[in-house]
Amino acid sequence: MRVFCILAVFVCIGQFLYIFRIRKQLAEWHAFLKSLAKAPGRNSFVKGKGILADINFELNHLLEESRRQFVKLQRAEQANRQLLTDLSHDVRTPLASLIGYLESLNAGNAKDREEYLHVAYGKALDLQELTDMLFQWFRLASDEQRYVRKAYDINELTREALVEHIPALEKKNISFSVNIPEDEWPVMMDQVAYGRILNNLLSNAVKHGKCSRIEVAMERHGNRVSVSVANDGIAIPEDEIPFLFGRLYKCDASRSGTGTGLGLAIVRELTEAMSGEITVTSIPGGKTTFCISLPLCL
Questions:
Q1: Cα(237)–Cα(265) distance, rounded to whole angstroms?
Q2: What is the pLDDT of residues 133-148, one digit of tens each?
Q3: Interacting residues of 256 by C-beta distance below 8 A, sequence separation 6+
Q4: What letter does residue 182 receive in the DSSP assignment?
Q5: Contact, 164 vs 200, CB < 8 A?
């Protein structure tokens, strides 16, 4: 009986010490959590093993994830502020020009009415393109983009999309060549998204590459098909290529000119949404080639 009592005493002491250690650790955690506002980069530490160490590990994991999300939100907020700043300039310039031409027409001061109307129409188209680009980007950024994916013959779809661009390219004195096989290559894709991809790549070549020739070619590699859009314009510096598809990223001023920096980011988002990949190569004095690879329907 005496031995049993001694064991009971030791058990009680052990439980008391265990509870005391837990209360002490909880108090430390409480103080640690209160201090996070002043030192958000800190982590909590627990010596030894057991349930407290496991809880501490999960707590630190949650803290690290919260920090990553916080940094992500900060970068997104900064990017949105930069976007609004750029847009205020990109919209103001063609809008002011458009209003100026329309005011001259309205006042009857235009010497060449047709020329003024032509320029005003061009400025209106610039604003429309900018608005469409921005609308597309916000839909992607907010996950509101909805895709209707069907099996299309990508060769025929490419021909149809390119036909619309040829008159505008000829008007800019840009020669155009197409190499599209007559075979049917079915690809599961969203028709509107694919059209946007081609439009952005062609627009990028004309506006930022300042090219005189564009070449579009289709090739098949096993169970994938590639669509390449090449131009002979200003080469992209090698150190710029890794960042080319980033949001709001613009190359050096000599190549980029004006723009939101969203066109290629949208191309990448839409391509990846259709299980595709996009790469770019640029050779000084040669060609800059954007290549999209998409899986065939087998």
A1: 18
A2: 676 666 666 666 677 7
A3: 208, 250
A4: S
A5: no
Q: Which residues of 134-147 are buried (b: 16+ CB within 10 A; e: fewer)?
A: bebbeebbeeebee
- Calpha distance 209→251 (Å, rounded): 11
- On whether the CB atoms of residues 94 and 126 are closer than 8 A, the answer is yes
Which whole-number Å values give the CA distances from 283 to 149, 241, 265, in the listed order? 35, 12, 21
- Cα dihedral across residues 208, 180, 163, 147: positive or negative: negative
Among candidates 85, 288, 120, 292, which has minimal Cα distance to 196? 292
Phi, psi of 35 (to 5 degrees): -85, -5
How far is C-alpha 194 from the chain's CA centre? Answer: 16
User: Which is more confident, 211 or 72?
Assistant: 211
Q: Give the total residue count for the chain.
A: 298
Q: So what's the pLDDT on residue 34?
A: 64
